[in-house]
Structures
1.
Amino acid sequence: MLIRKINDYVRPYKVFRDMRKNLWLKTWELETLQWEKFKTLLDHAYENVPFYRGLIDSAGIRPKDIKSYDDVCKIPTITKSQIIDNRQHLMAGNINLRNCVEYKTSGSTGKNLYGYLTKDDALHIRGSYERIRNENGFRMLRDKLLVISSPYRIPDRKEWYQYLGIRRIERLNVLEPLDKQIEILKRIKPDVIWGFPSAVKLLAKAVQEKNIKGILPRLIFTVSEVLDSETRNLINSVFSVELFDVYGAWETACMAWECDSHSGYHATMDTVLIEFLDEHGNKVKGGGRGRVVVTNLHSFAMPIIRYEIGDFAIPKYEECPCGRGGYLIERIEGRYNDMVKLSGNKLITPQALYTTMEHIIGISEFRIVQENEDKIIVYVVKTDECRDSIIVNEITRKLNRALGDNITIDTKFVESIPREPSGKLRSVISRV
Ligand SMILES: [Zn+2]
């Protein structure tokens, strides 16, 4: 009993220490580690998870047929709907769920995904985020961290050591009114902020406009939404920082992150296997846009193997000048559902639309909704400094130039842009 208790404290330390070391492995060492983990997970899933046994059998293969990265594509990919619909068959039969941690993700489709993690899976997921904060200068014991998140991620009570000023984590509900958020920000005065870019941007604007003094975070991390350059520049200049963007999801933990050389995103090769695929399921070349398909290498309670996460990204397949191993991802482009679809199968990414909307004066926030192939509605929360007609003309001119003249652009002014239940802002939605 006592030994188990001691192990409960020692194990996270060991896992975390090894995870930090992994970041400095050479690329070939990371590939070896990644491959070993992938094979272990695949064998486990085939032996113990009815869904994967059926899936792999239906493809006419066995785990032993998967001998190299080139063979991975023989395993069918899975979608979020498949995970939601087959939840019971996705649990590993050899793992006692009573010893597991349950998690929930809310999707833009309105359906929630419930998953399970073994304690060890959960350690790796938490570690995957904690180590990148530390790599970028977060002092785990001393820094006051403000996490901006959705309400259901906010725990009711603090741990005892947090009352002693150790590992101080404060949480801010992103769905609270902005005035209340600013009050919390002023009271907490965080050393480090972690949150959705849209939420940090609103706080940055408020700090700037209300000339609020004394908010001096040393580090800012943005996560879970596509970060556009205007938002990045605003946050950096208001808080005098160089923010770090992080790509992650609950089902997969941290998949990629920025270091201080800002040369792209480090793929976290020891916790996930990310593939970038074209429309035929082939690997895209460096610089090409691909669908992100991800395997969570620490998902033993409910394996996530070749999961179509719904995002597009551009891999770089180069190493970072910082000296850490592994390859870089050039850009995270956002969700497929959030891309504007034009005739001739042309896709316009949210990133491209953010760039188009940049520098239009008088816009505080916006949402672009593609209603059909020919019509786009832009919902705008305006600042006070500009006439409506000027904003409308500017939006129409810029979007028509980006998307073509045959698309009708309709601009509507609104009080606010509603957030997703998760608290995320979806700035682009396509109903096509
Ligand atoms: Zn780097």
2.
Amino acid sequence: MESAAPAPVKVAFLWSERFRNRGYGRNHPLAIPRVPLTLDLIRSYDALKGGELIEARQATEDELGWFHAPDYLAAYANAECRQRVEMAERERYKLGTLENPYFEGFYTVPAIAAGASIQAAECVLNGQAAFNPAGGMHHARRDRAGGFCFLNDPVLAILRLRRADWRVLYLDIDAHHADGVEEAFRDDADVLTLSLHMNTGYAYPFAHGAFEDQGSRASGHTTINVPLPAGVHDAEYETVFDAIWYPALERFAPDAVVLQAGADALFLDPLARFKLTTQGFAAVVEKIVNAAPRHADGTPRLLVTGGGGYHLLGVARAWTAVWALLSGCDLPDSIPAEGAQAMRATGWELDEDEPWFASLFLSRFDAPFGLPVRGEIRRIAGAIRRHRFFACW
Ligand SMILES: [Zn+2]
């Protein structure tokens, strides 16, 4: 009668060969092949078998227009046709700046990444979980680029779920505040945006994201912001995360979770100032996978995107862990020779003098820090527990 083996989870990995093209020109933090290296590393473990590779398609102008302004989209698409950005457009739309530079595939490749997030949402609507590591561009605004982001694919994915009338919890564990996504849904009572991030007093985007900034008064608390000090390590992140994630999920009771899993909170990251180990990052993702709402067969109703993350090897290791958790695949501790070779072939040498550099190729785990939780972090967790975020839901 019972004990039929549980059906395997159904999970999709969104991929396009166009993601192999190096974007962002030269000398940009994102001019690194994060997504292809992630796929290569996953393949070296033979871990793709736990799910299905889906060919990403470019988002249509109509789909992009669910969120983005027509004049912005026209200027952006025209820049790729002309192969340059006009001065007036640079100023008005922040296109072609040092932060958001022009490159080959300037519009097409981000539009494929955005299409992939919409497809990922459709996968979730159809009974799967989904991972789009090329997505997670959470800083893009309706009518301008920002923070290396041109098209806000998390917003588009959420809007796709909203078209099916699903209630969505957006959780952002990127080291930076999810300003673009928060702004998009401030007035939608059926989308909760929850962002843990470096305090914007010392970190990009240098505005918003304060603990007191808890969303639109008109619609109740549809925004939760948890700004954190520099140096947050595994035990500290977990202390704060547990205080907010479980009550938010339980009280908001979403139909699906969209997770922006930027990997710039890793201690390796050259731009951000958190201090998570790969296993600390994975432990957070595991809690999300385990607690997310479920389809009837037990597959999590969970859409995961990439996001920030500027240490090429660190990002690929972290997102490989994300895929393994989503697809229910147990990985060995040591990195397969082929995976190590793929990592070496990138020529990454930013921190080759660091004592831990060699271990990046050997083990998927980092040496733990074993640091105590600071009083400041305990105070933040206490403030979260006392706050009546959920009173109006
Ligand atoms: Zn970031």
